[in-house]
Each structure stands twice: as structure tokens, then as C-alpha cells.
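Supplementary material to the annual report.
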Amino acid sequence: MKILEILNKVLYKLHIKKPPRPSGPQKEMIPEPVREILEKEGLDTSSVIFSIKTDMVSAEQYGDNLIFFDDKGVYCAQFREKELPQKQKKKHKKPDLKPELLKIISIPIDEIDEMFAEQYLATGQLTYTYNGEYYSLGYFSIGLLERADNFKKIFNAFKKDRSHEQYTSIDTGNTCHKCGAPIPKGLKYCKDCVDKKSTVKRLFSFFGEVKGKMIFMITAVLVSSGINIIIPQFSTQKLYDDVLNTDNTLGYDDLFKGLISVVLTMAALKISQQLLTLVYQYIVAGILPEVVYGIKLKIFKAMQKLSVGFYTHKQTGSLMDRVTRDANNIYWFFVDGFPYLIANAVTVAGLIVIMFLTSVKLTLIILFATGFILFLYPIVNKKFRKLHHKVWVQNSRLTSKVSDNINGHRIIKAFSKETDELSEFDKISSGLLDAEIKSANTEGTVFPILSIIIYIISAVVLGVGGVMAVTTNELTIGELLTFVVYLQMLQAPIEFLSWVTTWWARCVDSAQRVFEIMDTEPDVQDKENPVILDDFKGSVELNEIQFEYEPAHPIIKNLSLKIEAGEMLGIVGKTGAGKTTLSNLIARLYDPKEGVVKIDGLDVKELSSKQLRNNIGIVSQDIFLFMGTIADNIRYARPDATNDEVIAAAKAASAHSFISKLPDGYETYVGSGGQSLSGGERQRISIARTIIQNPKILILDEATAAMDTETERNIQNSLSELKAGRTTIAIAHRLSTLRDADKLAVIDDGECIEFGTYDELIEKKGAYYNMYKLQEEALRFIGIGEENCDDEEEKEKEHDENR
Amino acid sequence: MKTDKLSIEFLKPESCNFSFNDNGFLVMTLSNEPIGRVKLIRTYPYTLTDEYICVHNLDDKEIGIIRDLKQLDESSCECAKKELENRYYCPTVTSIKSVKERMGHFYFQTIVDGKEKNFTVRDITRNMRFASGDTLLIFDMDGNRYVIPEFEKTEPKSKRLLEPYLY
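Predicted assembly:
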């Protein structure tokens, strides 16, 4: 070990190996050089609780700022990085920088009431209040918002009751897992540490199971390429020099024998080469679909493990790309690229060797010319890549336009916008036309020019070789002609090798994206040995829950609720108040940022997700039916449900009557490309799906919002039966839906502003009462729902009488 | 439906007064009544930067809309413009030195507001797009936003480096 350390030190000294950088955001609360400067200024940095390095010194100016606090105050130190003089200026070497303190501001902790992280367009500002007045602490670019928000939380928690420890472990700094250098969010390694080799190694590991076949295939490719190289030796050199040479003094029979021998050898070689090509193509065709099937399966399996948050942050299109396009990129490289890469590399190497053996002079001329072509091809390829990309982009725009038009056809017709749509389509279409014409014109010009260059080289070779053959007898005519054939044979492999690197890079990129999904750790994970409850009762408790999808935008703020097993809780509130988020947290689709969600007295993080979700049924406002029959959709949660149970569930969800009227009944195909159903019908199927699941906790998130009053009433009756013996959490805008609730919670801006029974809330005459009155008036005004109002009125009268 | 029914009521410019308090925050008085700290919001941030400006209080409730900042008195107009500049400040990329692709990530070496700045962009066709007219927006992996206000007028090398990834 000691020797290794010494060796490493030597390697660092010689700049052969980089010394490891300290990793982890907490390790360096105050960077060492800064600490020295601050201590010189008389600041004790030993008890710093938290710090943040920001990148702006004013609203519109970049600069280095360090904001930190201890139990006495908050400090803002502004720095400038000064370049140190170097003994020798080395190219590409980053200059040594030394921080220089510009100014330092300290604010006593008692003069700060609360801290805030404000968000602007591309920047943010840390501010604080004191006696109702706002003060600025410093600006930062928007990428640091999460860190600034965390700093604010830690400070406020410290200020409130010294409860900041719960936050300080949050890792908000992004550092390379390998070297500790700062990196963008979402990356594990910095670009210097991304191990391209390991990606390639992993890529080839997909072929591990078919190793034997791969070796056989590569051997076949090598032999086939070898034969290809020696064919001209017979087809040209031997034919010209031994048979067609006019200087030959052999008799007719010998010449004929020679000709037959050349023709038979050529035929035998060509047939063997074709057979070998057939063999390797057959093997490739067998191996690759199997490997690609494996890759797609692995991506899909990895995606199933990921938490909801991952899907929310990634666009569906980009995820679909990974399963299809990226897997296909890998597929096509290995089908169309890899075998030919070996074949062409072997061909080029073999041809050059043979050409050298034939004539060193001519080969050198050719190599010089080849070098020129190799220099030319990447430039041409780059140009074509740009042109092809433009065509691709214009094509995508056109596809999006067509898709937009088809999806929005009703609106287009309703607003009579067909002509405008047509002219916009025409505009995009002509953009595509221009791009395609430009690409075709360039291709039509550049390739003939390249061919002309190659023909010129051939002519030069032929000329120089001819002179050599005639004047110095260095070459026979056969050797010269073989040379020209070899030169032509070089063209295709060189062209291939010049752009295969781009193809390979695309394949590695795709592989990297595929591995990113496979390596992503789900945000919501089971513990190693999760608790499995013997008797899942279904009581739910939320303790001081805080949650946000985006930093500094809290959706749920310090919310606490308790529902006993078997009770029904109604949640009401404005759109965007955080009601659906609450149901997502109970089902552990997300974990709260702070606070605990308890089921049967246990933190949901302790429970098995499988058991938890088997016992929680969600009827959501986003109705999704999978591709398949109605019966398949109803028995989605329990595939072993009998036909009787499917019909019973559909009846309970008031879906049976419309399903039985469909020509294909329960075997009607729904989902993408299937029978179109109305919103209400789809919702009833989704309710039946939850009914068959038989969950202990039922979450109804605006379950009946898309239905008419009568259907809603029918479903409510069915759900009333279903609710028996289960904990029900019903989220609704229509208060009539919640008339059976044991408890009601009014959520506003992420907080529970009222909680209690119907009677208690009406008596309180607060937010619930106001909402109830507003809805009552609205329903009376439009002349519907009087029945509902009467119900509510009766309830209110009953309540008044009780009082 | 008659379009005149769609007319909106703007804040009366003569009743609005904006100024910066001692701590550098924008405060407002409306009809001589102090409102306190306010936020200004551009409704057309790229095309009409000083028109249709929403005024919100710190609870994000709208106080009203100013039709055009020019209608305000000179001092208020200046303060409002300064506040909007700060709030809508977006680092301007003046020059692109290089764009290198590695493993699906694009590493940009740029000059932003006169200083060298390096950043990384993923999914480049989605994260580099035109906002309105000739304004090009670039979003890096950390969520930072950069702008090239007049792409057509930018230096030829920068244009050449970016063009392959643009519509």
C-alpha cells in the first residue's frame, strides 16, 4: 500500500495522474484558501453552520460570493479570483487562481427575522426581513435556486428552534462521483471522468451470451476479406502475365490450361467468399434481434422501477426515443456497421501490404493521395451532417404540424381556420422542400467531384506505372493493372472508415442514454427489509408534511391530518391547492420533502411498496385505459378475477349498462386505436377497475367530475357500498359528492385551513361554509341540482335543530 | 361577441407612483396610498418589454396592469424600468467559442456578458430554441437560461457553430 501511495505521488508530481479532489458538498463548508483570508480578517470560521457559494455580485453582474452563517450572524463575503503568475505558461493549462477578498458584510442573527429565496427570470435573490422591512443578501443565477432555497430553509429552521440538522444532510451540491469536480445537475461524472471505455465494454457485454457466435462471425468476416484481397492476384495479374501476355512462348494447350486454372481458382475463391459472407450475414441476422430485444427489455424493466418524478421531469418523447430509437441506433450499428468495419479495416490493411510488396513507389503515391482524401471526407461528411440535420428538423416540424392538425381538427373546423392551416402547412412544407433541394444539390455536386479526384489519382497511378513498366521493367502489365484494381478497391473502405466514426459515436451516445436509465436510482425506494403488515387496516396520518415539485415552489406546506381506519375524509379546495399531490403522497408515488406519512401508525417508507399500493386504490381525474378489452382493463389490478367479478364490478360502477350495449360487450377493444368512449364511460371503467382491486384505502380524486348528476348519483350509491369498511379519501369540487364524509379538510395554498365534521365547519362559518354557500347559489342560479341543494339544506336544518 | 366588450381596465398612470426604498426594493403608492413592495411582470417579455406590465403584491395578487410605462411620471417610469431590467436580466451570450458533443451532452464554451462561461446542454434541440422572432434561448443542465438577442446579427463563427442544432 505504501509503495502504491509513493507511486501515486510521483504520478501526480509528473502530471501523469490527477490527484483526487475532495468530494461531497459538506466536506468544504468554507474552501481552504477562503478560510485563511476570512480568519485573517478576524472571523472565526470554525463554527459555520452552512454556506452557499453564489455566482453573482449584483442583479446583472457575475462574481464570486460566499454567504454563510453561524450562531452569531450571517456573513456575505465578495471575492475576486486573481490569476497567479506562472513560471511557464502552458497551453491548455488552467491558470492558478487565488481568491481576493473585496468586501465582507455581517448581519447579527438577531437582526434577521426570516430568510427568503426569490426567483426571477434567470436569476434569484436571497432576501430577509427584519421588523417588516425587506433587505437583500445577494443574487445568484437560477441554477443555484435549489441550493439557495436549502440555505434559506436551514437558516430559518436554525433561527426558529435550532432544528436545522434535518436539512444539512441534504446533498444539493452536484459533484462528480469520481473526482469531486462541480458538474451540472443530472450527471454522475464530469466530462473528463466519463469512461468511454466502460460504456463500450458494457455495450459489448450485451453480446456476452452469444460470444461463440460472435467469434465465428468475426472469423468468417476476416477470411472473406482476405479472399477478397487475393482475388485480383488471379483475376488480373495471373490472367495478364501468365495467359494474355503476348511475350508468352507457351503452346496453345498450356495457355488454355493456364486460363482454365485461373478461371477455376477465381470461381472457387469467389464462391468461398460469397459462402462466408452468407454465413456471417446469417449469424448477424440471428444474433442482433436477440441482443436488441434484450436491450429493449432491460430499458423497459428499468423504466418500470423508476418513480413518478422521473416521468414528470422527462418528456414522454425522449423516453420513447430511448426504448425505440436509441436501441435501434445500437442495432443498426451492429447490423450495418460492425461487420463491415472489420471487413473494411482488414481490406485496407491487406491491400496496403500487398501494394507495398508490388511497388513501393506507386504505393507511396497512393498513400499520399489517400491521405488527401481522408482529409477531405470528414469535411464533406460534416457538411452533409448539417444538411441532413436541417432536413430532419424540417421533417419533424412538418410531422408535428400534421399531428397538430389531426388532433385539433374539431377546433380548426369550428373556427373555420382551414385556409390558415393550409398556408402554414405550405410554409413549413416549402421549408422542407428547400432543405431537401439544397441537400440533393450538394450531394449531386460533391460526390461527382470526389469521384473525379479518385479517377485522377487512378490515371496518375496508371501513367506513372505505365512509364515504369515500359521504361524500367519494374512492373509487369498484370501487376500494374492489379494495382489499379486495388486502388479502386480502396475507395469504398476508405469512404466507409471516414464516416464510421460518426456512426460509432452516435451508437455510444445512444448506449450512454440507455445506461443512464438503467443506472437511475428511483427516488422512491423500498427499504432493505420492508415491513409487511399482517392486518392492513388503513388508518392514515400526515405529520407536518412539506412537498415541492420544483425548488422554492412549495405545494404542500406543513400539513397535518389524521383519518381513522374505515372513515371517509372529504378534501375540498381551489384548483391547484395541492389536493391531488396529497393523494400522491399517501400512495407514496412521491416522498415528502419533510414530515412523515403514516399508514396504520407506521411511516410509509418502512412499508413494502407492493403491499401499500395493493391496498390503495386511486380513481383519478386523469383516466387512462390500456390497450386491450374492457374486461382486461377492469381486471388490470387482479388478472385472476373471474368474469362474474368483472361484471359485478362494472355493475357497481354503473358501467354494465353501457358496456352491454356495445356490439362487442366486455370484449370491446379500447385504448389507443380502439373503441372511442366518452369521458364518463371511461371513468366508470376506471372505477370498476378500482372496485375489483378491493383496496383498504380508496382515493377518489374528482372521480365523478365528468359525469351528469344522475350518473354521479348512481356511482355515488355504488361507491357508498364500496366505502363500507374502507378508509376513503374523496377529493371533490362539488360539495354534494362529499355529503357522507366523516371529516372534511379544506386545503388552500398547500395548507389545511379547516378540518372537522360537516357540522363543525358549517358552524364555524369559515372557508367551507363560504364555498358551500357559493355553490348553492350557483346551482340555484342555473336551475339544476336543486335536489342536491335540498339535501344540503335538509342537512343544515337538521344541524340547526340539533343545535 | 363584440370585441369592445373585451377591453380591459388599466391602472391610471397618474395614480401610480414607483420608487426604490432605502434597501433597494421597488415600492408603490396607488392613489397616494402606500402599497409597499411590489413585483412587476412583463406579459409580452420579448416583444413589448415596457407595455402591459402587471403589478403584483408580494402575495402574488394582481393589483392591476399598466398599459405603457411611458404613461408614468419620469421618475416612476425609470424605477419601473430598472426593476424590470433586474427581474428579467438574462445572461447574454455574446460569442460562442466552441460546442463539443460528448456522450449526448453539448459542452459550450462561451463569452457571457464579457466573461468566459462554460455550460452543458442536454437534449439540444429542445433546450435551444427561438423565443420570439430572432431571440435565441439556451437552457443548460442546471436550469440556467441564456439569451442571444439577435441571432442573425451574431458573429459568423457563433452562428456557424449553433446552426446545425437550430430549426
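Chain B has a mean pLDDT of 88.
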